[in-house]
Amino acid sequence: MAEREDLYGLLAEFDSPETLVEAARRARAEGYSEIDAFTPFPVEELNEVLHLQDSRVRVLGLAGGIFGFAVALAMQSYTNFSYPIEVGGRPLYALSAFAVVAFELTVLFGALVPAIGMLALNGLPRLNYPVLAASRFHLASKDRFFLCIKAADARFDARATERFLKALAPCSVELVGA
Amino acid sequence: MSVAAETHPILPPQQSLGDVTDQIALIPLRFPTRRRWLIALACSSLLLLLFVVSVTVLFTRGVGVWGLNIPINWAFAIHNYVWWLGIGHAGTLISALLLLMGREWRNSLNRFAETMTLFAVVCAGIYPIIHLGRPWFVYWMFPYPATMKVWPQFRSPLEWDIWAVLTYLTVSVVFWYIGLVPDLAAARDRARKRGWQVFFGILCLGWRGSAVHWMRWRQTYLLIAALAVPLVVSVHSEVSLLFASGTIPGWHSTIFPPYFVLGAAFSGFAVVAMIAIAIRALFQLENLVTDDHLDVLGKVLLACGLMTAYGYIFEIFDALYSGDPHDLQTLTDRLAGVYWWSYWGAIVFNFLFLQLLWWRPARRTPWVLFLISLSVAIGMWLERYMILVTSLYRDFLVSSWGLYQASFWDWSTYFGTLGLFLVPFLLVIRLFPVISIFETKEVLHEEQERANG
């Protein structure tokens, strides 16, 4: 059935990460691809089941670190070039003396860039989101584990998908508006 | 330690994930121990007031109100700076190092340990600034295009210091906040009053626990943790270089960086243990910060203490082996000079009472562990004093010998920083989940799964 614009998807509630992972696996096997899960804590198995792969955060960390390191060396070299303070014939461009600040800025940018990047990739901060309106969704931060099949999925059909989800023995199934 | 954690659960298994969520998230929402918290806040505010008064006096009358002089020109300011910064390091080590090592017991402790780090670093960072004499020129430490066309001296440890501390503070805040976001969402979902919903709703950045978000979140968290561990080592090594880069006998030693880092971890773990015991008693969290947690903290404290003691031994060995007359003289000054009490005080407070921790019931009795930790905090304070003053008061030339005594304003500023630490700390435990909710649930679930086979 064609995608319905007023719908976000169907949300099924489970009471343990194991049943959620099993449900997600069954949904993948059924051919659904636009699936998301909402859990109170990270559930590693979901990454595999939902084929979640994204190492951009790590790349950002590496890039941030290299950037910080380069900035630190450039800054320290330039200040010594621009205003040379010669002390007892010691080298102006003293890499051993530059190492501390270079390391600190490597860490600073290596931590800040992926932290900001993680939020950006996740589309956060965001004040509202369709699933947050679901009546039992507040339990997703407590002790319930939610599986969502989105209306954007090619195989999504409000009735058929609901029937499929109910067969997975969830605690509840709810239609979420967009 | 690891064997014990793997064979028997560290959290009582009969509690459910929902119980834990409600228990922690409802602490800020329906604050249970208002009275005791208010008394603590009032006392801390008095200390903070003392700090404000002391700094006002300092700024209006100059650093002459302190007892520092030539040759002891680095007195309480750097002494307490090192002490506070060292305390801060344990929060990062508990949180980051133990996360990377997969030590699950850290999940009950990391939140308040990290909070401790933030404000300990603030207390540390304020000292070099107020010590400047002309603190309004602190911006001279930054490389900005000045009209005089001068730049900071990047080959000086004093300049490294500002970069190290500011980086440390920033990374600690980021690590703390990234770890807090999912819990803020949990608090948002528990909140009934509009004000709290808006407060947590905004601060949690709209977190919804999506699987793909968790995956990226986890990568980021581990990445920052992996950076934070060497950062701690670098920051306190850099602090030790403030001393070791000089030629003063008793300072000019390659043992200083590891010696300082271990001492920092030692004092910090002591303060973490004190805070853990206090928070657990204040909010009745015995089911989350268990006797097993105190047991492990006691063992870590003992291990750090023994490594610090090794540093003491090697410091003596270093002086004897070098045969340098000035180093030997500093050694005898430490053991039997005017400030002998700071050396022997450090030995007694750091290492004597510590030996009780070999005994299991001592580790598991909160008040005993608290008193031992307090003793370690005092001992490390004396150690920093000893390292500083016993080296400076008699260096190479007899003509530059002199004595030092802390003045009233030295002491009042120091006690004031306790308020500067405690007031924001108390506010944070009032407003935010004091224990990491989702990480505790992660451990609980894993342990329950293991118990069920």
Considering the chains and any ligands shown, give keywords for the structure:
heterodimer; A: 178 residues; alpha+beta; four-stranded antiparallel beta sheet; 5 helices; 4 strands; rod-shaped; B: 453 residues; mainly alpha; Formate dehydrogenase/DMSO reductase fold; 16 helices; disordered N terminus
Protein model, in words:
The complex is a heterodimer of chains A (178) and B (453). With 178 residues, chain A is an alpha+beta fold. In chain A, 47% of the residues lie in helices and 13% in strands. Chain A has five helices and four strands; from the N terminus they run βαβαααβαβ. The longest helix of chain A is centred in the middle third of the chain and has 27 residues, at 56-82. Chain B has a single domain (2-452), classed as Formate dehydrogenase/DMSO reductase fold, CATH 1.20.1630.10. Chain B is built from 16 helices and no strands. Chain B has 453 residues and is mainly α. The two termini of chain B are 22 Å apart. In chain B, helix 5 (110-130) packs antiparallel against helix 6 (157-190). At the A-B interface, strand 2, helix 3 and helix 4 of A face helix 2, helix 6, helix 8 and helix 16 of B.
